[in-house]
Design a protein that fits this description.
five-stranded parallel sheet; single chain; two-stranded parallel ribbon; alpha/beta; disordered N terminus; 20% strand
Length: 206
């Protein structure tokens, strides 16, 4: 009896798996830096996306679809992001894209995905151009540079009470974008701007 029960269990499990595999696939593509200097951020976003899909997968199965997450490593590079975007476009199962992480990748990737009518939601891109270009496929869920920059400048002036300011950014699209937003605030407040530096240098900055 135990053997028969086990066989029945295996048969039912096998049939359930077969049914699940036969469901039409809907893929959510994740475009993020999974290797390179900011891979930690990309991997955290991948974990969040994975958890969200686990929670939503049952509901999609009730509607007759098998929901899956497929990751594409853009390495934090606009050139690599463009390559991965093309792979996403070529995947007939992809419905929507989560990413990219940094604005420098999100900007070109969203332009490539727009003609393919693929929706895109960036979890962290802040450059105003991301949503100011009029593309209908791109959305974001965080404050823009023109919100973050002045807020940061107000903190430096009001809370820290700084009278002399030296601005350094990391030469990324994000860093330069924030610099462009904080400088007008400092100038308007008549703060002494000692200097500005935009550099990817890390070792000699302390």
């Amino acid at each position: 009896m135990k053997t028969k029960a086990m066989l029945n269990l295996v048969l039912v499990t096998g049939l359930s798996s077969a049914v699940a595999q036969e469901l039409p696939i809907v893929t959510v593509a994740l475009v993020a830096p999974l290797s390179g200097s900011i891979a930690g951020i990309g991997k955290e976003i991948r974990e969040a996306a994975s958890l969200t899909l686990v929670q939503a997968r049952l509901e999609f199965r009730k509607m007759g679809f098998d929901l899956r997450l497929k990751s594409f490593d853009d390495k934090g590079s606009d050139a690599e992001g463009a390559k991965q975007a093309q792979k996403v476009i070529n995947d007939p199962y992809t419905l929507v894209v989560v990413g990219a992480v940094n604005s420098g990748v999100t900007l070109p990737v969203s332009e490539l995905l727009a003609p393919a009518h693929l929706g895109m939601v960036s979890p962290s891109s802040t450059n105003p151009k991301v949503t100011d270009r009029g593309l209908k496929n791109i959305n974001r869920i965080v404050a823009r540079d023109d919100d973050q920059g002045p807020t940061g400048a107000d903190f430096i002036l009001g809370t820290l009470g700084a009278k002399n300011v030296f601005v350094v950014d990391d030469a990324s699209v994000y860093g330069k974008g924030l610099t462009e937003q904080v400088l007008p605030v400092f100038r308007k407040a008549n703060v002494k701007l000692v200097g500005t530096v935009s550099t990817a240098e890390r070792k000699n900055l302390k």
